[in-house]
Amino acid sequence: MANPHSSPRILLVEGRDDKHVIQHLSHRSESMPSFDIKDTDGIDQLLDIFEVEIDHKEKIVGIVLDANEDLKARWRAVTGRLGRIDSPAQPQRAGTIIDGKPRVGIWLMPNNQSCGELEDFVAAMIPDDDPVWPLSEQYIDGIPKKCRAFKSKKTVRAKVHAWLATREEPRKMGAAIRAQDVNIDGEDAISFVQWLRDLFE
Question: Is 1 inside any structural domain?
Answer without folding.
Answer: no
